[in-house]
Amino acid sequence: xxxxxxxxxxxxxxxxxxxxxxxxxxxxxxxxxxxxxxxxxxxxxxxxxxxxxxxxxxxxxxxxxxxxxxxxxxxx
Length: 76
Prior knowledge:
Layout: H1 8-20, E1 26-28, H2 44-51, E2 64-66, H3 69-75
Parallel strand pairs: 1-2
């Protein structure tokens, strides 16, 4: 039921990346700009774009990145 509410292209992307990323296609960025998936430091522009809500990806592992809303509020 939940899968039917998700855009089919997004669901297809999720399934393909999930296999490649050992079940975790999303990764949180911390305040030091470190990807929570592969522990690589991402460029400052990637961190900024992620904070602005743009879809960003880790250049090394390919996971979609996000920043916790609490971290955004603290920095603002």
